[in-house]
Write a structure and sequence with these properties.
mainly beta, WD domain, G-beta repeat protein, Dynein_IC, repeat
Length: about 70
């Protein structure tokens, strides 16, 4: 599966000033991966942007579910 960059902001980050940033790649970097113990065809991937994506080996064109991160204060 190719991880795509998400453009959804985490809760609590909407009013923060945006910095200008150049986009080098449209793909995201997966920083961690874990497989489900009960169903090895299901796995989750953590990305450098914060969201965690629930994926399936059977449906490799889209995420099953996306969990947004939180802001730590």
């Amino acid at each position: 599966m190719v991880l795509k960059r998400s453009y959804v902001s985490a809760p609590g980050t909407v009013n923060k000033p945006k910095r200008s940033e150049s986009l080098i790649s449209r793909t995201a970097f997966g920083s961690c991966m874990a497989f489900n113990k009960r169903d090895p065809s299901i796995y989750v991937v953590g990305t450098e942007e914060g969201p965690i994506h629930k994926c399936s080996c059977s449906y490799n064109e889209q995420y099953l579910e996306t969990f947004l991160g939180h802001t730590a204060y």
